[in-house]
């Protein structure tokens, strides 16, 4: 496991280890683990990591917050930590204070639009919104005639149609019909929906990379325990090669995600180079989730296909996270267009930009 | 946790960007002067001695080596930038690449001082070419099976046997080779191999070219018959070459040359589809670029580990495994994506010529420098499975 040399990650890992043990969670069909976990995370100030002190948050750096998301991925925690962090970050862009409690962001798909009327009321539909049903507030990015705004909205003002993603987590459709926000302010210059989607995509990439680290870990352990044909299956070359490929996918996902996080944490804005990093992370991590998850299940055989085993907590979430804030297909098309538009001779300079 | 597979997001320092501009300017001049054509990866002669000397004169060979041997004492990351720019431009690097990447560092570590003072400055000037003698008929990836014998005699060793698949042996001035000085022991299959510096182009060595399916000549069979190697040409420990050879491999396995060998077809595809691609082309290009970017970030990260004095054997193996599988698939993927590019597009002809060569190149990419199967064995060992 990556050494946690920063206090934010250390704190989070301790909480996860105490209150989010995957086996305990998996056995608890009623979800009674959720409230104590959320309470502990909130008391440690983690959901509002990215919100400055003067706006009600704990003012951690972008880098520390990204490392926290990676740790959350390693535990595949199913509480709206990433969503609340993103919401707080979005609100802070417009200097809006964050309230306490669970939040999520709208829209969560690049193809959905929330619009703002002249009187400030918000309308529109957002699909695939993670944890909308659990949220008390939404952080909303809205398009108006005079530009882009960021708003804090009371979640009870929206109409929520419940849904579940592939990983059995809430992924809901939220409809706003002339909803007056609690607060609304203009977004800073240059900030748009693509910025939000790239940021959300990198958050998901770090979670996917974390889940893959855990899938590698538990798959290697299982292969050293399970005996078939009178040998530990880890001694079969075919199994070794599969696990080597899983290690490669896990390493690629982590490299892409941490590189994108580092790029955003140190960039002045979302230029083409940051776009390359963030879009690539989402594309490559989604591919790794598909390939790596398949191998992890193959190594586990039938036991990994059961609801009793913890493998699905990681594999299905990693697959589900592919869909949030733009799928890999979406980003591949957009990145491909960007590359084509810059022209053949500008491709290498873009790739080699840092 | 099983293995700490971390690829920290190393960034190239500012001075690398300055260097990159210098290398690009130099390559642009050479292209303009007709030294080589970046659009013709399959050009007949990839050995261009005058280009090699010009690169040496720029100070871009032996960049990380001590100044007393003609080096520049620059960082691995600076060398990295030079390597990737040369590779992307399809520059004719054959004459100097092996010496710069591998042979020089081996000599610095294991050769006696007078040999270092003689040979290393000549490598840095781009004057001499090296080959690596590892594989033998029927041994290949199984280095333990090497049989070519070095028999002790007065003042040196007599070499008898055959090396095969030896790239550049026909133009090489020297070869660093592994020969058997003792039989392996029961306890240690790795025992008994010794590394030697061999001066080529002498009686007792016969080089027979082997054609490749690309139509190029690169490989050779090298036959040694009572060939004499003096004692001071032994590199490192007698019977202990195994460990020496494996520590070399991190250099050989993680560099940009391990995912950029067929890169040119991607550039040409982007040119052929033009500025407003259809959805299918855009998506295909986007995925390939994301994969390329990810591998490059991993590869730069390993260069940073080497710079920090680490021996990232498992990490380097992962980069080579993913990188070579990618560059092997790339021409096929580009071919798929190019299927609907307008016939009238101006660069269609170049793309097709490049694809023809890249598709023929592809099969070797997962074999050279350690097969995929061997690499996955190394990764599995790193995971604690063996």
Automatic annotation (TrEMBL), chain A:
Transmembrane segments: none annotated. Residues 202-320 form the Acyl-CoA dehydrogenase/oxidase C-terminal domain. Its cofactor is FAD. Keywords: FAD, Flavoprotein, Oxidoreductase. It comes from the Bacteria. It holds the Pfam family Acyl-CoA_dh_1. PANTHER family: ACYL-COA DEHYDROGENASE (PTHR43884), ACYL-COA DEHYDROGENASE FADE28 (PTHR43884:SF20). Belongs to the acyl-CoA dehydrogenase family. This is Acyl-CoA dehydrogenase.
From TrEMBL, chain B:
Transmembrane segments: none annotated. Residues 14-127 form the Acyl-CoA dehydrogenase/oxidase N-terminal domain. It holds the Pfam family Acyl-CoA_dh_M. Its cofactor is FAD. Keywords: Flavoprotein, Oxidoreductase. It comes from the Bacteria. Residues 131-226 form the Acyl-CoA oxidase/dehydrogenase middle domain. PANTHER family: ACYL-COA DEHYDROGENASE, ACYL-COA DEHYDROGENASE FADE34. This is Acyl-CoA dehydrogenase family protein. It comes from Bradyrhizobium xenonodulans.
């Amino acid at each position: 496991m990556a050494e946690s040399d920063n206090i934010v990650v250390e704190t989070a890992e301790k909480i996860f280890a105490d209150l989010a043990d995957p086996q305990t969670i998996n056995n608890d069909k009623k979800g009674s683990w959720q409230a104590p976990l959320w309470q502990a995370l909130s008391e440690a100030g983690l959901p509002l990591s990215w919100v400055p002190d003067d706006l009600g948050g704990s003012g951690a750096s972008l880098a520390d917050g990204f490392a926290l998301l990676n740790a959350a991925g390693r535990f595949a925690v199913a509480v709206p930590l990433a969503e609340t962090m993103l919401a707080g970050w979005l609100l802070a862009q417009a200097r809006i204070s964050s309230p306490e409690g669970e939040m999520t962001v709208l829209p969560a798909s690049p193809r959905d639009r929330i619009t703002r009327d002249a009187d400030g009321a918000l309308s529109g539909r957002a699909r695939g919104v993670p944890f909308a049903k659990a949220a008390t507030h939404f952080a909303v990015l809205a398009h108006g005639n005079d530009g882009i705004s960021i708003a804090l909205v009371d979640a009870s003002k929206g109409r929520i149609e419940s849904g579940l993603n592939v990983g059995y987590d809430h992924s809901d459709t939220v409809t706003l019909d002339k909803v007056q926000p609690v607060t609304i302010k203009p977004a800073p210059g240059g900030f748009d929906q693509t910025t939000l989607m790239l940021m959300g995509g990198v958050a998901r990439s770090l979670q996917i990379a974390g889940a893959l680290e855990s899938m590698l870990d538990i798959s290697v352990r299982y292969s050293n325990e399970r005996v078939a044909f009178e040998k530990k299956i880890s001694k079969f070359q075919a199994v070794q090669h599969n696990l080597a490929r899983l290690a490669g996918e896990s390493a690629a996902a982590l490299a892409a995600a941490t590189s994108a996080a580092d790029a955003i944490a140190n960039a002045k804005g979302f230029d083409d180079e940051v776009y390359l990093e963030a879009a690539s992370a989402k594309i490559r991590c989604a591919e790794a989730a598909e390939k790596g998850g398949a191998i992890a299940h193959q190594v586990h055989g039938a036991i990994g296909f059961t609801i009793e085993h913890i493998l699905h907590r990681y594999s299905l979430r990693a697959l589900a996270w592919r869909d949030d804030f733009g799928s890999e297909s979406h980003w591949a098309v957009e990145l491909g267009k960007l590359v084509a538009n810059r022209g053949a001779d500008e491709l290498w300079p873009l790739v080699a930009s840092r | 946790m099983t293995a700490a597979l971390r690829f920290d997001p190393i960034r190239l320092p500012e001075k690398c960007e300055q260097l990159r501009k210098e290398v690009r300017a130099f390559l642009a001049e050479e292209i303009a002067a007709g030294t080589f054509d970046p659009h013709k990866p399959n050009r007949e002669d990839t050995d261009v001695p005058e280009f090699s000397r010009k690169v040496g004169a720029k100070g871009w060979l032996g960049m990380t080596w001590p100044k007393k041997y003609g080096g520049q004492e620059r960082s691995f990351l600076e060398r990295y930038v030079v390597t990737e720019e040369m590779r992307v431009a399809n520059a004719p690097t054959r004459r100097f690449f092996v010496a710069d990447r591998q042979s020089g560092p081996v000599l610095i570590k294991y050769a006696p001082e007078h040999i270092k003072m003689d040979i290393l400055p000549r490598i840095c000037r781009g004057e001499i070419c090296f080959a690596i003698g590892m594989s033998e008929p029927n041994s290949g990836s199984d280095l333990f099976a090497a049989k070519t014998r070095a028999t002790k005699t007065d003042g040196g060793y007599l070499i008898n046997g055959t090396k095969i698949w030896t790239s550049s042996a026909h133009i090489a001035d020297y070869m660093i080779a592994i020969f058997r000085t003792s039989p392996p022991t029961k306890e240690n299959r790795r025992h008994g191999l010794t590394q030697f510096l061999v001066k080529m182009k002498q009686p007792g060595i016969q080089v027979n070219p082997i054609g490749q399916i690309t139509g190029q000549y690169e490989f050779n069979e090298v036959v040694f018959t009572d060939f004499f190697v003096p004692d001071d040409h032994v590199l490192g420990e007698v019977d202990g070459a195994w460990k020496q050879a494996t520590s070399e491999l991190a250099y050989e396995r993680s560099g940009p040359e391990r995912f950029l060998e067929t890169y040119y077809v991607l550039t040409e595809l982007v040119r052929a589809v033009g500025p407003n691609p259809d959805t299918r082309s855009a998506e295909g290009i986007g995925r390939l670029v994301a994969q390329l970017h990810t591998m490059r970030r991993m590869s730069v990260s390993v260069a940073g580990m080497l710079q920090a004095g680490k021996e990232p054997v498992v990490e380097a193996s992962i980069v080579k495994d993913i990188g070579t599988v990618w560059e092997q698939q790339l021409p096929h993927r580009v071919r798929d994506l190019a299927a609907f590019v307008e016939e009238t597009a101006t660069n269609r002809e170049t793309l097709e010529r490049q694809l023809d060569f890249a598709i023929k190149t592809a099969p070797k990419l997962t074999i050279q420098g350690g097969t995929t199967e061997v690499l996955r064995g190394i990764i599995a060992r790193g995971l604690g499975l063996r």
